[in-house]
Amino acid sequence: MARHGWNSGAQRWRLAALLGVALAALALILTVTTTLPGDDSGTEGTTRDGDKVHGTPAVPPGDAEPAVGWGFTHTQYSADEGGDAATRRAEELLAGLPRPLPQIQHIMGWGAGNPEPVKGRYDFSAMDQRMDFIRATDGTPVVTLCCAPDWMKGGEPGADNTDWSQQALETAPEPAHFEDYAKLAATVAKRYPDVRHFIVWNEFKGFWNNEKARWDYEGYTELYNLVYKELKKVNKDIMVGGPYLVMDSVDPRQTEGASSEVEGEWGRMDQRALDAFDYWNKNKTGADFVVVDGSSYTVDDEMLPDEFKATEKLTAVGKWVRERTGDLPLWWAEYYVEPGDSDDNRDDWSEPHRVAVHATGLMAMARGGASSGFYWNPQKRGETCAGCLWRSTELDDGGTELPMLAMLSRFSDAFPPGTRYEKVSVAADDEPNVRVLATKETMLVVNTLDRPIDAKVDGQRFKMKGYEVKWLKR
Predict the structure, then answer these.
(1) 41 pLDDT tier (thresholds 50, 70, 90)
(2) Considering the entire predicted model, what is its pTM?
């Protein structure tokens, strides 16, 4: 989510487009021997049995819960590709974590190709590979139902006609094809029966009403309800959530179009996002969990009053959502605490700084009532990758743990769904400088300063390095 609102995710779409082209070419190569000479029907590499169970699905627990915990999202590049030794190293790394991380995969883009290039003809080859990786790491698989094949949104059908441009990919299905999309969702559910958690669409992409200058929440909710019903027909135990709405905020001095109800030093919520959420919440057929995403900074990339205190927005939004949805578990499908540059790169902070702010963001989400959250893994192929979870598996020594994974894994293990948090004492002179999240057994403390401090928390006195993230037993 490089930018929020109508043009959100521009860089990610460009990356997805490049991958999509490569996947289409790969599909042609792999299936050339099964394609009849002169066949120009556009079905190369596709099959009719998209709902055939793929591989050997892990048996999901009979008591699967709607809250899955803290994990990450696979993006264009992930550890399912690269050298054999490196990919195996990454699999073993993730499988060996104290608590396996839930992992999101989209059905089109972000590493997956066009799932249904022609109506009734399917190509899940790339997604199959990602699902195999998730299974190999013992992760809880989560599927985001986005995006839509071209023929559902006014484009040309055909395996070689997929338009991977940003404009095309950000187009929602036409209302006449909402039912087709719901059937595609059901096909995905049948193919991967071990997936019990589905998110409907991504960031309201394509659902914008230009005439009214607001979100087309009526259209999204109609699509959501159709998908919800089709998934429940496949298996009543499947859990479905939405609306995956970007919770934008603006400068606290702005009043036009801004909320006077959800505000703080960090800014004011864009009222259009709140209105869209309220409509979906009131008119949804059902939901097993509720999904939002957003950043701690404003639409103008302002971190107010600073990068650490700005994360309080995540707490405020969470509390507002929970007040309206009651017992429904709250998920953050994406969260951002570090603005990107014009190319969506986030390379300005040191890794300790990055880890400290992200840890503070996770703490803020937990305080707001969230039980699940997903880190958007910015995986790249090079030697350096700011904020990546592991070294690129394209490298000979790739697949090893990086600091962000260490922090995310520890947080996931210490604060699983159902955690009861406790308030602890903080010395008066330390209150402005540290952030704390604690249970009866564990305490997480973050130093928000770039210099060492001597802190006293919960009756314990200890030294902390600049931007240190410290775990303590109670």
Answers:
(1) low
(2) 0.91
